[in-house]
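Continuing the batch. This is chain 6 of the set; chains 1 through 5 are on the previous pages. Same settings as before, nothing changed between runs. Recording input and output for traceability.
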Amino acid sequence: MAQRGRPHKPKGTGTVNISLRLPAELLERIRKAAKDTHGNTSREIANRLKASFAPKRDEDQAMRALCFLISEIAKQTTPPVPHSETPPGIWRSNPFFFAAFKLAVAQLLEALAPPGEIVPPELPEAVAGFRKTEFAYFPETYESVEKLARQACMFTLMMMNSTAEQHAAMSRAWAERGLEDPYSTHRWMPDAAHDLAVNPKLTGQWRPK
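Output for chain 6:
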């Protein structure tokens, strides 16, 4: 007998309605984040949950370890006083401690450098076909270490100086083309810029009490 009505969706597909209890403060933060992007609270929650289940292939264990080591260097270049007396973020705001932190990170990276000669890579044919208007990186970028580093830094700083609305517009542009936004994590760039702001109270010379 032929099935009448709408066909059933395969199990595990589509959307469902659920009841969920959240702290009021957390819900307000989610609503604000949704307003800054696409204005849909349900989609905001779904996107954040989806990101927490990112495929293992997207996880860079070495990068996670490096970030941990850099955070340890920030602690090591902080004045040796009781934690309660050490202003947070002093490595970022005080010229002396930032210079020490910067030098220590550079020395760490030098110690971790992989062996071998530094030569421009041979790009796969698919990568070589990228159009400049669609991707931040294109073949010319990989001609030298300096070009790649400059492009990476310039693009990152540009994203940090963008607004949440601009990031949302970029995501919608990718979605309209039926593609997943390859830079979806950049939506948090404005937050990074905010958290990296220099604290004027910690600039200049600092002395513990």
